[in-house]
Structures are given as C-alpha cells and as structure tokens.
Amino acid sequence: xxxxxxxxxxxxxxxxxxxxxxxxxxxxxxxxxxxxxxxxxxxxxxxxxxxxxxxxxxxxxxxxxxxxxxxxxxxxxxxxxxxxxxxxxxxxxxxxxxxxxxxxxxxxxxx
Length: 111
Known about the structure:
This protein is α+β, with helices and mostly antiparallel strands. It has one domain (31-110): Cupredoxins -  blue copper proteins (Immunoglobulin-like). 17% of the residues lie in helices and 41% in strands. It is built from 1 helix and 9 strands. It has one helix at 2-20, and strands at 31-37, 40-42, 48-49, 53-58, 64-68, 74-77, 82-86, 91-96, 104-110. The strands form 2 sheets. The chain has a 5-stranded mixed β-sheet, with no helix packed on it. A 4-stranded mixed β-sheet has the order 2-1-4-7, with no helix packed on it. Strand 8 and strand 9 form a beta hairpin. The N and C termini lie far apart (47 Å).
C-alpha cells in the first residue's frame, strides 16, 4: 500500500515542477491576413498577440508598404504580392503606406 502512494507522489513531482517553473503549454500563434484593396488596408484585426503572424496581401495594381511609424517594421508589397511578418512585441503600432500616406491603420498587440 505504501508503495502505491509513493508511486503517485513520484509521478506528481515532475508535473508540479514543470508548472512551478512556468512551463505552461505555449498558445498556438494565430495567423491573420490584411489585404490591401482599392487603396485601403482591409480587415485589420482588433487585437493581435505576440507570436501571431500577419500575412499582408496587396491586391492592387500599385506598389504599397506597411510601414510602422516608429520604424518597427517596413513591409514592401509590389503589385499582387504577399509578405508575412511575425509580431514580436506588445503595444499599439500605427502604420501607413510610404507611397500613399492616407492609407493607414493601427495594430494593437497584447503579450
């Protein structure tokens, strides 16, 4: 009987140590697509999380960029192209197109 109890205690210890050390299973990163259509950034997500991926898609016949005002990212998008970007820090990031400054948006990123 004591042997069984000790086996249970021993099997509990590794799980407890992992949890105590902060090794929680990582949340799976989400992927979002932001299309550029008719000179506008369409469907910018309300909230992103660090580690998420943004797939930028330029459906226009003009070259565009997705450029952070703080210089944190600058995605070049020739006509009918795609580029991916991993979100690497939390915060609020205003962005715009360098060629068409009226095109703008904001990424809200949580940890």
